[in-house]
Write a structure and sequence with these properties.
Helices cover 24% and strands 25% of the residues. With 255 residues, it is α/β, with parallel strands linked by helices.
């Protein structure tokens, strides 16, 4: 099970800044931010499953374009997974014919280019031996994180979240957890903005990690452009003992 980072920035601005998306092997996406745009048409056509953490634009921007670009090239619908609340937002506010066509009805309802698959919190979807489990998250809109588990090793991707005790309960119960990718969107000088927008800053991240009872390789995602260096310096000051590293585009995790 191979996980490749397509995008991990909290914004755009130059070729090195792509918003959130992870490619699992060749056929699964976790979120569909602007990083997906670097895939070729042939690579896009191989994607069968998209798991959405939440519906903010930096996590779903490319989803409409994927379906539009390769729908007719495929022999089965693209399956979009999310909680009922997440899928309802997609239906109501994106695939609504006003913002984008409803590809769950194109070319017809019996054989659409896209289908929705509701998941519940804590549910595990198994695809060819790869286990993907939705995890608790705490954000301004309905949201989850995901655990990716090959059986040998596991990776947690928190998505966007603030303080979330339930996340650590699940993480501490995973004996094969090796990697933790966690957001830290703001520097400490914007702590109040982090609280209001339900993100994390280094001070808050340090408090959250005190609940983690396992040794992991720790990676930081969703850093805001313009604050990357400052935030990483503050992270080093607050949680340096965890040996945190900034997540990078094209980074690959073997599970």
């Amino acid at each position: 099970m191979k996980v490749k980072v397509l995008g991990c920035s909290g914004g755009i601005g130059g070729r090195h800044l792509r918003t959130t998306s992870l490619l699992v092997d060749h056929d699964i996406l976790i979120d569909a931010g602007t990083g997906v745009g670097d895939l070729s048409v042939a690579e896009l056509a191989q994607i069968d499953h998209v798991f959405i953490t939440h519906t903010h634009l930096d996590h779903v921007t490319c989803l409409p374009f994927i379906v539009d670009t390769v729908g007719e090239m495929r022999n089965r619908p693209l399956t979009v997974y999310g909680t009922e609340d997440v899928l309802e937002i997609l239906r109501a506010h994106i695939f609504n014919w006003a913002i984008w066509p409803d590809f769950s009805e194109i070319p017809n309802r019996e054989a659409p280019f896209m289908r929705y698959q509701p998941i519940t919190l804590g549910e595990t979807i198994t695809l060819a031996g790869r286990h993907i489990t939705s995890l608790p998250a705490n954000h301004t809109v309905p949201a989850v994180g995901y655990a990716l588990d090959s059986g040998k090793h596991a990776l947690i991707f928190t998505g966007d979240t603030t303080v979330c005790p339930g996340l650590w309960t699940v993480a501490n119960a995973m004996p094969n957890l090796r990697y933790l990718i966690i957001e830290c969107a703001f520097s400490n000088r914007e702590e109040q903005l982090a609280i209001a927008s339900k993100h994390l800053c280094p001070k808050m991240l340090a408090q959250e990690l005190m609940q983690l009872q396992r040794e992991v390789d720790l990676f930081i995602t969703h850093l805001k452009p313009g604050q990357i260096e400052l935030t990483m310096l503050e992270i080093e000051d607050f949680i340096g003992e965890y040996r945190p590293r900034m997540l990078q585009n094209n980074q690959v995790f073997e599970l």
